# Entry
Amino acid sequence: MMEGSHNGNFIYDKGLDVLIVGNNSIPEKISTYIESLPDVFTSKKMVSYITDAIEMGLPEDLVIKEIDGLYKLTGETYHRSRLSLASIYRDILSEKYPNGFCTGSATEIKTFRDNIKEKYGDVNLPVNDHALVAAVSRIGVLCGKGCYKLKQKEYISKELANRIHSYIEESQSSIFLMNTLYEVFKEDLEKEGVDNKYYLQGILHELYGDEFVFTRDYLSKDGEDTSLYPTIIDFIKEAAFQVDRAQIQKHFPGVPDIVIQFAIESPEIINCFGKYIHASKLRISESEREYLKQNIDAIIADGAQHHIKELYNLVSIERPEIFTRNGVFYPFSAYSLIEYLFRDDYKFTRPFIAQQGVEITGTSDVLREEVYSHESYDLKELSSFANENHLVINSTLDFIDSCNDEYLMISDQKMMRIVSIGVDEQIAQQVENIVVGEIEETTPIYKIIGLRELPKVNVPWTDWLVYSVLKKWSHKIDLAASNKQFRYAIPLASPKGKMCAESFEYAYKDPDYKGEIPIFDIDELLAGEYGDSILEENLWD
# Structure
């Protein structure tokens, strides 16, 4: 409030150093107005505040004098008292870096400094960039690799935060890779704007920093497992040759497997197909590194994802010494090496590489996209497509079953869209009723006689079509294959809970059986030349 002395029709205000005659309420109104202004505002905003004051009937010169007395002007910013560097950093982060300030280069840090200088003038920023970054990290939250955004009251919903916390607490593991936690909750996190594991780490550190122990790559519930983690990495680093898990376990008897797993998944450990080498032991010249990068760029220039085998095969022919010198003898190992060398340059999802920004889809998604573009699909073509694109199908039958939202097997050679086959849930109920009424134990489907009474559909009934129909719709029958290798398998059915596929592991179809189930159509039989005699014969049986 203004302080002053009053005498009749005038008032002397000490703060403004003016004598006000007539309206004694003006100083009080000016004080009230100034109190309503924010603690910090720009010179441009100052103009609008003065305009507002004038419109309220307040004298412009007195309002300006009051602001000048209560505020300090630093650069283009008015503030009530001396601004701390932390408050300046907060303001710049909020205004200029809503998506995060990345500290990855001197150029980016210089831009940050320039933003401060433009708005606040010379405020004696620390000369050392590391000091500036450290200060920003204290007031910000990690939101990317080396990136920070201003701390917020809420990052993710309480419901999602509680689910992540429960997952950690209820797990038997005491240590969690950040990448693992992110993948488990990826879909929900992305819906709430968390698009990488670093941001998740920053959020969890803000929420549960007092409860869990955090390192660069993982979270520990008690901190006890973290002490061996760097020691194992040092052991690998100091080893003369590549080491395997057995050697690590021998050197660290009793160490939990999860701790070894975290150590060997550290970014500086290269996984050479079950043997591990520290990145410091790599022997790759700058020209060899450039050679690898040029070939990667050429391979992924089409904007699609590519299997590491493409690069591995090329380098193994042209410059094999690059790989052999570093113990890389398999595509798996090559992936680990390339990911370490170019982690920030490309998008990596084992075993694929792509340009930054390209969405890498998994093997099943790539195969499904291929199948779903056809009305029917030959399973031999599926195998050829997988080989051509360096895709590994762990289980042909599991993949086929995963497509039964739109496709069913019509034989052991082909898949077809359900709508084209002509089956539906009602027909599936008939199939289920026949099978349930006829089997008491695990039985090859082609031996179920009652299936000959099925209604006609658009394709011939086969044992694999019956399998697919039941797999999609039945709740009373268990289905399995007699052999893990699809090409040697026959489909089996059993009552729920009674499947024993092992006893049919070496079972094969009868040599003259082709898979089709002959349909017994009584109307066609009766309409034929011998209809009467057939009917009579059946009646007397």
Summary: The longest helix spans residues 106-120. The chain is about 45% helix and 15% strand.
